[in-house]
Amino acid sequence: MSPPPSLPGDPPGGRRAAAVWGIGVAVYFVAITYRTSLGVAGLDAADRFHINASALSSFSILQLLVYAGMQIPVGLMVDRLGTRKVLALGAVLFTVGQLGFALSHSYAAALASRALLGCGDAMTFISVLRLGSRWFPARRGPLIAQVAALFGMAGNLVSTVLIARLLHRFGWTPTFASSAIGGAVVLIALLLFLRDHPEGHAPPPPRQRGRGSVRRQVAAAWREPGTRLGMWVHFTTQFPAMVFLLLWGLPFLVEAQGLSRATAGELLTLVVLSNMAIGLVYGQVIARHHAARAPLALGTVAATALVWGAALGWPGGRAPMWLLITMCAVLGACGPASMIGFDFARPANPPERFGTASGIVNIGGFTASMATLLAIGVLLDATGEDYRTAFASVFVLQALGVAQILRLRGRARRRERERIVASRVETVHVPA
Q1: Chain centroid to CA 335
Q2: Confidence band, pLDDT 50/70/90 cuts, at residue 254
Q3: Candidates 3.60.20.30, 3.90.226.10, 3.90.380.10, 1.20.1250.20; CATH matching 224-410
């Protein structure tokens, strides 16, 4: 299948579109920096709040829980209020959360601050996706989404490199409090310069208002096979890398594989760098060859399962360095593959419903991540820290996701073709 054609009324793109969209991406970049900043401060947090490993892990799980729970409400807000208002609210929340985290001296206060940060973070990515769809032609949607995700991963690098060094040099409060300045800067920029859409390209207002309209909006998005397929693609592809980066990668590499913390940290950085490089490739391929979406997603799942299984099943329990490097490089494809889920939902829904559909899709990967984070922790406790058994839980969720992708793939393809044909017919009959 060739790339999707430009639709009637497609925004033209151009330099102004890039500038406005760039402001939204900057907000997302700061949000990711805040989201991942705890990853380099775990030991400092344990000392500061006098907590054990279980309590420390609750920071990550709470953030994912808040993030996933906010996706459909945020999607509805974006569709009804517009990108600018939702992004501004998100920037206020995650900046206040980061500042509160800097000033917290008790575990409860720090936990509340991370929940607030997660709430603001949840408002950014869907808003940036909506912004890109309103400022650029539809045919460029896959590449625009992948580039946005690439800048998000750059925020992860800032946490890994810059915040880690500042924390070591200046301490907890100065580091986290000064980082909150970034949120204030992007908030001012978006209030001054960001617009929801170019002139003459406003989406139609929601067709349904009043009582029950929210339920109907969500139900209409869910009925589309493309939305459900997108959710399961996101569910199946994202979570192995998320679990590895967010919590369990470092313990696995150090405790199960016998690496030093420095070497393990380098391998985690490799996951991030691989994500950024592969994201550009996937975006270009999908923009030019729309039919490559499902093969890329399923191929990524297969490659991830292969290297994950090889590392776990290596004789003697400790995989060679070349295999661990390969595994981390392949895990870098998980994030770009999860973005393909939005490329299924986008053509399946009208513009006024895209935020809601994106929220449904985005729930998938974060739900799988939460389930796997908990499953690995429970299995490690139950098996005396047997990483082979605990990490094998990944295969269960991958199998479930692949089954759903195969079940919905044909329905989504037929429905998408019907919408393209209907759009072309409508264009032919538009009066001059």
Answers
A1: 7
A2: confident
A3: 1.20.1250.20
